[in-house]
From TrEMBL:
The lineage of its organism: Eukaryota, Viridiplantae, Streptophyta, Embryophyta, Tracheophyta. It is found in: Golgi apparatus membrane. This is Exostosin GT47 domain-containing protein. PANTHER family: EXOSTOSIN GT47 DOMAIN-CONTAINING PROTEIN, EXOSTOSIN HEPARAN SULFATE GLYCOSYLTRANSFERASE -RELATED. It is a single-pass type II membrane protein. It comes from Capsicum annuum. Pfam families: Exostosin_GT47. One of its GO terms (cellular component) is Golgi membrane.
Length: 377
């Protein structure tokens, strides 16, 4: 126990030093005329949401925008107006309760870092965050599913119940202390979880699992936890260096295609004989298509890596709700292949006309700016 405690102290010091060195520059708030600011400030949260809904319903048609590439979006007009209204109106209250490291301490590296960066950027941004819960449209539960797993889970126990009970007790504490959870039964509260277990550790609190808005990397529509249209599928990405988060940012396809075809370079861990010639990143950059099969769950960082290296993603995960699917038209820059069609994978890829591939690859390049812009706040 002494060794573990000492290790934890050292890790906290290291994280504190790294966080102290990070400099995050937030975009300036939108320029709004004074009279409109006063009108908006006078609106109650429900009135502001009703105003936003009316504005979106009468959205003007956008055909060309210098900052947004229309083919990437399902409806660029609605997205643009919704984003403008979000910047104009949205206020989020972050609960102060909760001790570190599970609460208020973002985990910024590894494949679960999406939730950590969201927490860090949200807690440091004072434009969207309000200190007055009566003015809030949304309430953020500021815990890290990764930190919770590291702090509470007993290794090799295969028992997630302690994590689920921990969250249940936390929500019950908030409900007893504040009126905000009980007045909506949690429907205006949200959480962000990128760990594979994120959806499953909500099960001991019925309102937490049914009512809250969940931003999940493990957005599996087959389990009945993630609800398309209410919840958000969050991109999973691997961060290896917190100071340069974009740097260098065993499925059935591996079992079927390993060493079968020279045109289908599919590996598990990259063999030494291969890595001496070309790195993992160089393989992706030099490929037309990059396979993005599911991991242990439906989520995987391969999709983001593929886009980052300008390779057309081939998504093989039957039950994955694709990230930002309500906004993005994934057919414009990726392919989706059913798991049952893995044996026909080469045939499917060869059947893609060159012109369609060129359009998708062009769109992948255009898409690179989108996740950065969305996560800038």
């Amino acid at each position: 126990m002494q060794v573990l405690e000492r290790r934890e102290r050292l890790l906290r010091r290291r994280r504190s030093r790294m966080n102290a060195q990070l400099k995050i520059i937030f975009p300036p708030p939108p320029v709004v005329p004074d009279h409109l600011q006063r009108s908006i400030a006078a609106l109650k949260p429900n009135e502001a949401l009703a105003y936003a809904k009316r504005e979106i319903e009468k959205t003007p048609l956008v055909t060309d925008d210098p900052d947004l590439y229309a083919p990437l979006f399902r409806n660029i007009s609605v997205f643009k107006r919704s984003y403008e209204l979000m910047e104009l109106l949205l206020k989020v209250y972050i609960y102060k309760e909760g001790e570190r490291p599970i609460f208020h301490e973002p985990h910024l590296t590894g494949i679960y870092s999406s939730e950590g960066w969201f927490m860090k950027l949200m807690e440091q941004n004072r434009y969207f965050v309000t200190k007055d819960p009566e003015k809030a449209h949304l309430f953020y539960l500021p815990y890290s599913s990764r930190q919770l797993q590291m702090a509470v889970y007993v290794p090799k126990s295969h028992n997630l119940r302690p994590l689920s009970i921990f969250l249940r007790d936390y929500v019950n504490m908030l409900a007893a202390k504040y009126p905000f959870w009980n007045r909506t039964h949690g429907t205006d509260h949200f959480l962000v979880a990128c760990h594979d277990w994120g959806p499953y550790i909500l099960k001991d609190h019925k309102e937490l699992i049914r009512n809250t808005m969940k931003a999940l990397c493990n957005a599996d529509i087959s389990k009945g936890i993630f609800k398309a249209g209410k919840d958000v599928s969050l991109p999973e990405t691997t961060i290896r260096n917190v100071h340069k988060p974009l740097r260098n940012s065993v499925p059935n396809s591996f079992k079927y295609w390993k060493d079968r075809d020279e045109d289908m370079k599919i590996y598990g861990p990259l063999p030494t004989r291969v890595s001496r010639i070309m790195s993992y990143a160089e393989h992706m950059k030099s490929s037309k298509y990059c396979l993005c099969p599911m991991g242990f769950e439906v989520n995987s960082p391969r999709i983001v890596e593929s886009i980052y290296y300008e390779c057309v993603p081939v998504i093989i995960a039957d039950n994955l709700a694709l990230p930002f699917d309500e906004v993005l038209d994934w057919s414009a820059f990726s392919l989706t292949v059913a798991e049952k069609d893995i044996p026909k994978l080469k045939e499917i890829l060869l059947s893609i006309p060159l012109k369609r591939y060129q359009v998708m690859q062009h769109n992948v390049k255009k898409l690179q700016a989108f996740p950065l812009e969305i996560n800038a706040y």
